């Protein structure tokens, strides 16, 4: 008698078990924890809360320097401060500012 | 024919052996598990409900912060697809309003708002926001249709730590939820099965915490359409809500360009 194991079934069962039990969700009660996510704000990790810091390679800033004024620039309502135009957007549920080049 | 029969029999036997073991491990109704399931059932059965929470997040879990973020959050839900939350912290007040058609995020202090189409249920809203925008509405884990499944999906194992009195004598089931990312303690009211307190300690340097104290649960809250309707205040400016992909593209573009000093 020749016994052939139904390896496809075995593999499928094991794959279902290991993949579902080992998978980690990227959020723990609202706090992002997975790859590419550090905190509540989201994936950026390049923003600065407080005043914007010179020389930071930032995709966005969480706040802008004091003394800004409203300005329309590049087709957007922006804030102007220190020679830079900051455009507000909502990102990660918060208001952040991207520099208009 | 005989060989085929043996193969089929072995296959079924193997599945029969493995499947109950998996099911038992995944759904064993241990004490802690039962308490979370009861909480989940109670919240899921509430069609219109509201609650409040004080949420504190250690700075290591936030970007560029040196002090914890403390916020008072009011949440109002009308199943299946309407959600409103207002979060007030030292940085200002934010509102999240989902009416089944759109999601609006409002920055009250700066008088800014963004609106994106979101024709979906509460569960769909949470999933889409998480997937595309990298955040979820405040305390949404307790507003989805099956909080138990959500908690299990986060990879937590659940252990009962017995009974404990908190908040001036409310007897609670004290539960330990452990996952790869965090150890979570959850206190669920023994008499009403409602979440009362949550402390999540994350497995990273400094063991930062998320702390939530729940209060004022109302599982039959009166809700009006206006609770989930956003009317822009005078002078409010509409801005864009950026996806994770868009911000990543912005980050890539920023790296490539010589940056003027802000």
Q: Mind explaining what this structure looks like?
A:
The complex is a heterodimer of chains A (101) and B (262). Chain A is of the alpha+beta class and 101 residues long. Chain A has one domain. Chain A contains one helix and six strands; from the N terminus they run αββββββ. A four-stranded antiparallel beta sheet of chain A has the order 3-4-5-6, with no helix packed on it. Chain A has a two-stranded antiparallel ribbon with strand order 1-2. The relative contact order of chain A is 0.14. Chain B is of the alpha+beta class and 262 residues long. The relative contact order of chain B is 0.16. Chain B has a single domain (30-239), classed as outer membrane lipoprotein receptor (LolB), chain A. At the A-B interface, α1, β1, β2, β5 and β6 of A face α1, β10 and α5 of B.
Explain the layout of strands and helices.
The complex is a heterodimer of chains A (101) and B (262).
Chain A: H1 7-22, E1 27-28, E2 31-32, E3 69-73, E4 76-81, E5 84-91, E6 94-99
Antiparallel strand pairs in A: 1-2, 3-4, 4-5, 5-6
Chain B: H1 2-27, H2 31-45, E1 48-57, E2 69-78, E3 82-89, E4 92-98, E5 102-107, E6 112-117, H3 122-133, H4 147-153, E7 157-166, E8 170-178, E9 182-189, E10 195-202, E11 209-218, E12 237-238, H5 244-256
Parallel strand pairs in B: 6-12
Antiparallel strand pairs in B: 1-2, 1-11, 2-3, 3-4, 4-5, 5-6, 7-8, 8-9, 9-10, 10-11
